[in-house]
Amino acid sequence: MGNESHSIHDFDYSLICEYFASLERQGPGSPEVTVRALSFIEGLTTESRIVDLGCGTGGQTRVLAGHAPGSVTGLDLFPDFIRIFNANSQAAGLSERVRGIVGSMDALPFAEEELDLIWSEGAIYNIGFERGIREWRRFLRPGGYLAVSEASWFTESRPDEIDRFWNEAYPGIDTIANKVGQLQQAGYVPVAIFILPENCWTDHFYKPQVPVQEKFLQQHADNPAAAGLVAEQQREARLYDRYKTYYGYAFYIARKL
Ligand code: SAM
């Protein structure tokens, strides 16, 4: 967002940040799922270096840090999220081990083979799964782990409406089998894959948005961008309810060869 004059997009970003900043999570997931994904990862110690890319305000980062030894760096593009991340980490008494930094997942500020674990929940889509797993690999030490959750098709084909929605929103969505193939080709050993339960979308993501939407619309009455943002989130929730047999998030846990 730098020094350039404010464009409509900057304004949209600040609205999006404001909307999501008040939520514990900015994407589907749950503490149980974070702990389950972590259970497949071996060999972490107090010396381990863990990063959480696209961490948002860090709900899942704090769960991760509560169940894994080592230091955890959360990285997100949006300074507002990182401010909240660091305040929450301090309030949870985790600031010695858990810190948030502003940065972009396509230009990581880490050294080659520095990391023991790269974590990312519902965020790799920002640069695309295939690109992300390839570009991030060099920062992992040999034997280091990657754990990412990612939108995935459950079936080979699906109704047009949901196919169109996802191909516009994120053309990188693919079947679980194809994503496992991409991991293999990028030089990882797939260790575990599981589908996130429905409550990660309903109880932990869409339901907490309902009171936020009401307040947000009151605060931004007469702002069509705010009304549009809320309408889009509501549409997503309706589509999920209708088409959840065809897609969801899967957690992919893999080891660098
Ligand atoms: N991991 C969090 C969670 O599960 O609640 C947040 C997921 S949210 C759907 C996606 C996150 O990616 C947002 O916090 C957004 O700011 C961040 N993001 C978008 N583009 C990014 C980039 N290029 N580099 C780092 N983070 C980015």
From TrEMBL:
<protein>
    <submittedName>
        <fullName>Methyltransferase type 11</fullName>
    </submittedName>
</protein>
<dbReference type="GO" id="GO:0032259">
    <property type="term" value="P:methylation"/>
</dbReference>
<dbReference type="InterPro" id="IPR050508">
    <property type="entry name" value="Methyltransf_Superfamily"/>
</dbReference>
<dbReference type="InterPro" id="IPR013216">
    <property type="entry name" value="Methyltransf_11"/>
</dbReference>
<dbReference type="Pfam" id="PF08241">
    <property type="entry name" value="Methyltransf_11"/>
</dbReference>
<dbReference type="GO" id="GO:0008757">
    <property type="term" value="F:S-adenosylmethionine-dependent methyltransferase activity"/>
</dbReference>
<keyword id="KW-0808">Transferase</keyword>
<dbReference type="InterPro" id="IPR029063">
    <property type="entry name" value="SAM-dependent_MTases_sf"/>
</dbReference>
<feature type="domain" description="Methyltransferase type 11">
    <location>
        <begin position="51"/>
        <end position="148"/>
    </location>
</feature>
<keyword id="KW-0489">Methyltransferase</keyword>
